[in-house]
Amino acid sequence: MQALATSVEGDSPEAQAARRIAGAAPGEAREAEAELYRLLAPRARRFGLRHLRDAHAAADLMQHVMTLTIEQLRGGQLREPERVLSFVLGACRLTVMDQRRGERRREDLLQRYADALPIADINIAPRLDHQRVADCLERLAERERSVLVLTFFDEQPSEAVGQQLGCSPGNVRVIRHRGIDKLRRCVDSGRRTA
Amino acid sequence: MSATPSIHPSLDALLGYWLHESDPAATEAIDEHLMQCQPCGEALDELVALGEGVRTAFRSGAVSAMASDAFLRQVVGHGVRVREYRLAHNGSVNCTVAPEDELLVAHLETPLEGVERLDAVVTLSFSPDEQHRFHDVPFDAQAGEVLWLPKVDLIRKAPTHTAEVALLSVDAGGAHELGRYTFHHQRWSGR
Hints:
The structure holds two protein chains of two kinds.
Chain A: H1 6-10, H2 13-23, H3 30-52, H4 55-74, H5 84-101, H6 105-113, H7 130-139, H8 142-153, H9 158-165, H10 169-193
Chain B: H1 11-18, H2 24-36, H3 38-59, E1 65-67, H4 69-77, E2 82-87, E3 92-95, E4 103-109, E5 117-124, E6 127-134, E7 145-149, H5 152-157, E8 161-171, E9 174-185
Parallel strand pairs in B: 2-4, 3-9
Antiparallel strand pairs in B: 1-7, 4-7, 5-6, 5-8, 8-9
Helix pairs in contact in B: 1-3
């Protein structure tokens, strides 16, 4: 695992929470644990979504990584708590590799530690007004709308979309950039006036 | 890895990362960045939510698109219920939309070789004075057809009518008609 820069990690709110957990008796720093969970769980979940492409698997990864991290901090096994970001990133990567190998260790850990995990509310993803998105899509040029539909229906890269529409990946990226920019502005303006 | 997470990836880079366009080194760098940078994570979440919004709008039949046969097969593979009509060059068809149809597709066969830009003009019999022009629609010249995915929810609510679609090749010399297609739409009668 490639370590994140220590200077970033050492002063961060994540490192401060990790130090409080490591410095307390096991399970006594509940507030710091909840804070660490609130900060890092969405990032672990995002990593899982990107690499596993499955919402349930990503939620499992998030729970597993956060459980492991907090257990390691409580038990003093994470010798440099200020490097908690590196630890979480490494744990995310290992968990994805484990999942791809079909290993069951993740489930074992979840069963062992699920009760001990502090649960904090996390803000996972923004919710959009779908009617507004549909209205804004209709305002796009035909080519932009088609590229966005083909891109996002199955989360396809520009090369696949280009093959399907008979144009180059570079051309798709240009059209996609323009389309997303217009769509974001349109959806945002609807939010502001709502 | 920089000493501070100050080199924020652009939105295009974040989207490329999300869509698996980034190479392994770039993917690793963005993984690391996102682990430290809350604003970039939130920006990516916004993009992903926008993509989800596009997907939902399309699946609910609220947006039209021009696509390809390969894309259509993908859609079918996801369990979307599709009603397809194939029209020969300058052809016509009797058509409808069943309540369970999620997507309506018209395959319009037309010679596309040498076409630089394609426009489509739609005229509906219940408002004959009004023309809906779709400018610069995407097409694959090799395919020899244009795949039109109209808004299902609009057609489902429409009365029995006739729709004419004219495909126009547009270049510096002006526009000329490539083909004309007629849809005799009947409201779903339960059969």
